[in-house]
Specification:
The chain is an alpha+beta fold. It contains 27 helices and eleven strands. Helix content is 64%, strand content 8%. Helix 24 runs antiparallel to helix 25. The radius of gyration is 29 Å and the shape is globular.
Length: 566
């Protein structure tokens, strides 16, 4: 076998091992979650399942950290998402994963030089005056180096210091394998009813695949950067690097060096005279601007991709948010943007009914959702917790939370929400931003940024908003015009005895009672079959085994498995 064939065989073996490693970890994690979080509570052992949960999560996160750091590729993207969820995930998880933000073992510099020369068609010494061989970042898909442009080009462009992004050699093969593994996991999740009834896991994986394949094309990233920069051209609080097209290609992207204070470096911000709370507020505002106005948003805004750049004393603002890495971007359609604005207005006005309506339009409510109970619960949440910061929520009296949970136990248990397929990167970006703002200031209140932003939209900041409000007024007028006929139909139905009045609380209690009766009946059948089988065991072993085996089905139903698929 030739050296080239040996190399190919070795590479294929490595890729197969990688595929198996990802699936092995996923299957073990899913099995552990099912056992402790689903099975044990179903058989009345919820306390046993909760015991040692923190220790289990920390161990699982540590194993994933080791796996992702070893494999790199898309596994690091998953770790980046989890490590930024400071607002909802326990410290046991985020602390173990935080090192994955922008620290991955780098490729040898020799391979990077080969990649640059092959892509640009120039020797490195011709293309650049110098390149620092130590990467400033070794991310999951590529690496970044500080460099100096060749004197002639630097003079023409007015830039000398640059950052070179180089795609990792062979990353296309790794991405292909990772996506194949993720597609397999998506199929597994689609067979779990608790997951499949809320989202289409395979479709989410496909959306992720599309964006990832775009991310490993630096020319596509360059186009994204230009569009993002154009969207915020008039905003002094937002800045981006400039593209050096003469030194860029599909696998190599050269940008002006905009390195500054990392947004998570709170000490450096304070030393520079910048208020971290002000940074959090501006980050939230810029995020809302992307979601609700421009419709084009940064889908990977983890701390490694955002700098805080101090401004000169004569500037109108004291700092700007400098975004980098535009490989993963999200697009919001005009209809989705209008629906998101409706959701925003409902939250800002603490209007529970409008909030439920907006959720319905967005497709995040399951068809089985009970609007009456949901509106009541959201109304109480707005009245009690509207405007409350994360730090205050932590200090809330547990008895108050327990009382709320008991009153809405059925709603909380069923959780009538689903994740639409086009929400994958929207939710990801919001989750990452939420984690960053919470890290900047644990007491930061998102309402402080949301309320004025919502008011600016309501005041007519944009033709699309006025158009949508006009459509809403037309719909309202149409509803009013039909009201007399609706009332007449209602009266006729009442006279015929066809009017049905719903009592959600009674319906909930009846469903619980019905379930309890069914499970009790199943328990009695199990006991009867099992007892009969044991009683006749000495007389007719065949019939005894059939009776004992048949008792398993009612036993499963009595333990609650009959309710899982509903």
């Amino acid at each position: 076998m030739s050296p080239a064939s040996d190399k190919i065989a070795k590479r294929n073996k490595q890729l197969k091992s990688r595929y198996r490693s990802i699936l092995r970890f996923a299957s073990l994690a899913l099995a552990q979650t099912w056992w402790f979080e689903l099975f044990l509570p179903q058989i009345g052992l919820a306390k046993l399942g909760a015991r040692g949960r923190g220790r289990r999560l920390k161990k699982l996160a540590r194993k994933f950290h080791a796996l992702a750091a070893d494999l790199g590729g898309l596994m690091v993207k998953v770790g980046q998402f989890l490590s930024a969820r400071l607002d909802v995930l326990p410290a046991e998880v985020t602390d173990e994963l935080v090192g994955l933000q922008d620290e991955v073992a780098p490729e040898p510099f020799e391979k990077i030089v080969e990649q640059i020369e092959e892509e640009l068609g120039l020797s490195v010494s011709t293309a650049f005056e110098s390149i620092d061989q130590n990467p400033i970042a070794a991310a999951s898909l590529g690496q970044a180096y500080r460099a100096t442009l060749s004197p002639g080009l630097a003079k023409d462009l007015g830039h000398s210091s640059v950052i070179i992004k180089v795609l990792r050699p062979g990353i296309e093969e790794i991405v292909e394998v990772d996506l194949r593994a993720l597609r397999k996991i998506g199929v597994w999740l689609s067979k779990v009813k608790l997951v499949s009834k809320r989202t289409d896991a395979p479709a989410l994986v496909e959306e992720f695949a599309t964006t990832t394949l775009e991310e490993i094309d630096y020319l596509h990233e360059a186009a994204n950067l230009e569009q993002f920069a154009a969207d915020f051209a008039g905003d002094e609080r937002v800045s981006t690097p400039e593209i050096i097209w003469e030194r860029s290609a599909r696998r190599v992207l050269t940008l002006t060096d905009v390195s500054s204070i990392k947004i998570s470096d709170i000490e450096a911000l304070i030393e520079s005279g910048i208020d971290p709370n002000a940074v959090a507020a501006e980050l939230a505002r810029v995020t809302f601007e992307q979601f609700f106005v421009t419709g084009f948003f940064h889908a990977d805004p983890h701390p490694g991709n955002i700098f805080v750049t101090p401004k000169p004393a004569d500037s109108k603002v004291d700092f700007a948010l400098t975004f980098i890495d535009f490989g993963m971007m999200g697009q919001v359609s005009e209809k989705l943007r209008a629906d998101l604005q409706s959701f925003l207005f409902a939250v800002a006005s603490r209007d529970a009914r409008a909030w439920v309506d907006a959720c319905e339009k967005l497709g995040v409510l399951l068809p089985s959702a009970d609007r009456v109970i949901l509106e009541k619960a959201v109304t109480e949440l707005f009245e009690r917790f509207g405007g409350v910061a994360v730090g205050e929520l932590i200090q809330t009296d547990p008895r108050e939370l327990k009382e709320f949970a008991l009153r809405f136990s059925e709603l909380i248990r069923t959780l009538p929400f689903q994740l639409p397929n086009d929400f994958l990167f929207l939710i990801r970006a919001l989750s990452l931003i939420s984690g960053v703002t919470s890290a900047l200031n644990r007491n930061f209140n998102m309402w402080d940024a949301l309320d004025p932003f919502a008011r600016s939209l309501l005041n007519g900041a944009g033709a699309s908003t006025l158009k949508r409000l006009g459509a809403d007024l037309l719909k309202f007028a149409t509803t009013i015009s039909r009201l007399p006929q609706t009332l007449d139909n209602l009266a006729n139905r009442a006279n015929r005895g066809e009017l049905v009045v719903r009592n959600p609380e009674l319906e909930t209690r009846m469903r619980v009672l019905d379930s309890s009766v069914r499970r009790l009946t199943a328990g009695l059948i199990f006991a009867t079959l099992m007892g009969s089988g044991l009683f006749i065991n000495g007389q007719d072993q065949t019939l005894s085994y059939w009776l004992i085996g048949g008792s398993v089905l009612p036993l499963f139903y009595a333990l609650g498995f009959g309710r899982i698929s509903k």
